[in-house]
Every structure is written in structure tokens, then in C-alpha cells.
Design a protein that fits this description.
7-stranded mixed beta sheet; 11 strands; 124 residues; mainly beta
Length: 124
């Protein structure tokens, strides 16, 4: 499985960005895709996840109400719409895939596949 992330960039406080992550390869029919982020000197943290089969979603408290995760089933692509961005959202954003798909894990180690990071910078 390969994941290709895109959509990062520089935006002002209060602005919006949409990240995309396209999956290719043998994902199976029941899996979870998620976004994590890592700021300099910080640990990688869970941002949002979606369970492919039933579209169940989960969000970190820090982004709830501002970010929205969705999927395009035909293209096996997951999106992260980020609104009302804050400087503390600045980080390298990574998409990840868990082929087990039993539940949306917030632990990075539970995901077998990772895309390259896409940098989001929010200026104050």
C-alpha cells in the first residue's frame, strides 16, 4: 500500500486548507485512514480518522468543530478540510492507514502504512 499526501501550504490565522491522501495497492475492504501531525520537537499526534466501511469519524479535541475528515470511495482518497486555522495547527501532517479497520486508533503505532508529510504553516 502506498499513500500520497498533498495540499499543505502557508495560510494566515483563520484561513482554510484541504489536505488529500490517495491510497493505492491492496487496502482490503475494511480499513481506517487517519491524519496525524507532528510539530518540531513534539511527538506525532492524532488529528482525525475515518473508518472506511461505515464512515465513522473521530477527532482530536483540539480540532473538533474546525476540521472535517471525509472520503472518496471510488478513488480511495481521504480529505482533511481544515478551517479556522490557528498558529498551533502548524505541523507536518501525515496520513496513515490501518488495514485491520476494527476501530479508529489514536495511537500512531497501530497504523501500518504512512504517507510522506505535507507541511502546514499558519502565520499569526
Amino acid at each position: 500500500v502506498q499513500l500520497q499526501a498533498s495540499g499543505g501550504g502557508l495560510v494566515q490565522t483563520g484561513g482554510s486548507l484541504r489536505l488529500s491522501c490517495a491510497a493505492s495497492g491492496r487496502t482490503g475492504s475494511s480499513y481506517v485512514m487517519a491524519w496525524f501531525r507532528q510539530a518540531p520537537g513534539m511527538e506525532r499526534e492524532f488529528v482525525a480518522g475515518i473508518r472506511w466501511r461505515n464512515r465513522m469519524t473521530d477527532y482530536a479535541d483540539s480540532v473538533k468543530g474546525r476540521f472535517s475528515i471525509s472520503r472518496d470511495n471510488a478513488n480511495i482518497t481521504v480529505y482533511l478540510q481544515m478551517n479556522s486555522l490557528k498558529p498551533e495547527d502548524t505541523a507536518d501532517y501525515h496520513c496513515a492507514l490501518d488495514t485491520a479497520g476494527v476501530k479508529i486508533n489514536r495511537i500512531a503505532g497501530r497504523y501500518e502504512y504512512w504517507g510522506q508529510g505535507t507541511l502546514v504553516t499558519v502565520s499569526s
